[in-house]
Amino acid sequence: MDFRILRYFVAIAEEGSISRAAERLRIAQPALSAQVRNLESELGSPLLHRMPRGVAVTESGAKLLGHARHILRSAALAREDLLGDAAVIIGDVTVSFPQSVAMVLTRPVVEEVLRALPRVSLSVRESNTGYMSELLRTGRIDLGFVFRQADTVGLKARRLVEEDLVVIGPPGAFERGHEGLAPKPLRFARLAPLPLVIPGRPHSLREVLNDYARRARAELSVVVEVDAIPQIKELVAAGAGHAVLSYNAVREDLGSGRLSGARITSPSLHRSVFLCGHAELPQTRAVRAVEKIILEVTAGLVETGIWKARLASP
């Protein structure tokens, strides 16, 4: 068993498909399949369940996957230690954004990484925040974002910003005012009974709304659960109901009049955005460098008003 086959196995487990892993690794599928069979023979245990449309790790495969990720990360750290601090930063970094954060952060972060860290291979993914913590704890991603303090348990977390949540409806549902929002906010007691198109659990936005509803002793009136922000906005614009999203996610739609919206009061709704990493595994220099860029880009976007949010205290 060597580092190469461990890297191959991790790719197969993450892709859930030998063919997709072969494309990612840029090797022939038959050769990759043979490598896995040889590894299973060496370990004396099946590592993958072969299914008509992909593969899934067996119990033994799950154990190997945890060891493989730890070994590969340790090898990367050892390489960095031997290269020394003066060396050019080299490495692989995987960052996962929730949809609403991706809309404002992905482009400037990627552009700055390409400019400042040309030897870093950056992989950007979009994930439901409800699964972000698990992706971080299992080492499938290096950095990710969550919206609730409860989701940071067991992770290294830093609160980046606080951003307001607004209620949106079809055109004409709310009076149009400054920044596309109604001059008069909507009280939470009037929001809860509205027919809502919102994400299902374990999506963090849904959990945030549930937290507010519990504290207000109110029950949300959910007509349909939709996780994808573009589809939520399409349904609301068509009159299927109302939704609660971050202002940044609907800023352009409010400005164009495609949607109408209002701030929420009594209580006002907001959420924190946390940048998270693994709590126990040490970070490579590449991960630390990308994390630094995310912090700097976020500060710049907030200070210039591109990201309508409030920077959290260090």
Task: Report a brief summary of the structure.
The protein has 314 residues and is α/β, with parallel strands linked by helices. It is built from eleven helices and 13 strands.
- Total number of β-strand segments? 13
Name the structural class: alpha/beta
Give the termini separation: 44 Å
Please state the oligomeric state of the protein chains shown: single chain
- State the helix count: 11
Radius of gyration: 22 Å
Uncertain segments:
none
Average pLDDT over all residues: 89
Approximate shape:
globular
Q: Strand-residue fraction? A: 15-25%
Order of helices and strands: HHHEEHEHEHEEEHEHEHEHEEHE
Largest sheet: 9 strands, mixed
Helix content: 40-55%
What labels would you give this structure?
314 residues, alpha/beta, 9-stranded mixed beta sheet, two-stranded antiparallel ribbon, 11 helices, globular
